[in-house]
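Might I ask for a little of your time on a matter of protein folding? Here, with my thanks, is the record as I have it:
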Amino acid sequence: MKSYRKELWFNTTKRRELINITPDVQKELQKSGIKEGLLLINAMHITASVFINDDESGLHRDIEKWLEGLAPEKPYSQYNHNTFEDNADAHLKRTVMGREVVVAVTDGKLDFGPWEQIFYGEFDGKRRKRVLVKIIGE
């Protein structure tokens, strides 16, 4: 069995962003040479997420609105965590959206259903962040 590891880095320009990382992940899968196995992608920051969904701008706005309703950024004083930082909402958003995804690799390709894409969800951005891609298989 082979194993492949790569970190993908992002420079986010906004506090919250949804970035389609599917093309980057597909490139790493090709580099790995693995044809059958499992691919793990996880956020390496506690205020970020990796998830699978449709790449549709209306849905992205809906996700943003929904998350903001669940854990609004402001007022900062509503959170016990916000003593030295102002990112308690980002921690909660990450909890809801999840840390990682696992995708089956079949015949050297991501084994997706219709419209599925991999996203990096940034909830406390404006700085350099990363995800881990780990691929195991043959």
